[in-house]
Amino acid sequence: MNKQQIRKMISEKKQNMTEKEIRHLSGELTHAFCCLKEFADAECLFAYCSFNQEVRTDTIIRTALEQGKRVAVPKVLDDRLEFRYIRSEQDLETSPLGIPEPKDGLETADGREERILMLTPGLAFDRTGARIGYGKGLYDRYLSAHSGEKITMIALCYGFQLLEYIETEPFDKKVDRVLTPAG
Prior knowledge:
This protein is of the alpha/beta class and 183 residues long. It has helices at 3-15, 19-34, 37-41, 58-66, 138-145; strands at residues 44-47, 70-77, 80-86, 92-94, 100-102, 116-119, 124-126, 131-132, 151-156, 162-163, 177-179. It has a single domain (3-179), classed as 3-Layer(aba) Sandwich (Rossmann fold). It contains five helices and eleven strands. The strands form three sheets. The chain has a six-stranded mixed beta sheet with strand order 3-2-1-6-9-11. It is globular, with a radius of gyration of 15 Å.
């Protein structure tokens, strides 16, 4: 299957999930993520704000803030991402696309932290860390532009999002680890 076919297949499966399934599986993944050594050691968490049927990240973000970690979330600016620090959910607003984003005027994350953990979204992943995003290349471009920073990338996904193999392009960035509800 090519990327477009995979996007279509995974999107359809996600749309068929119930809110109860999303909450249950997100809870399992949140617990697993917050128990990781990488999470415990991170000074800063770069996290996406979940949208539609994505694995819910609000509890992870709150937990990181409660533990005194700096938390930055992305804002889409034309064809690029800019991560901005937040102190609470009150620092978020809904974008024109319906996605929670940091408000204007918040400090831009500059990657000065020693240990950055990035919660990386995507539609599909394989066991080697290859990922298929939503098709705009925003994360791939961000990571290419910040290749000198020490960023550990972890993806959370439902079991059906983990595929045997994803064909990648030279510009595609892999995640370091993929967590699914059962492992």
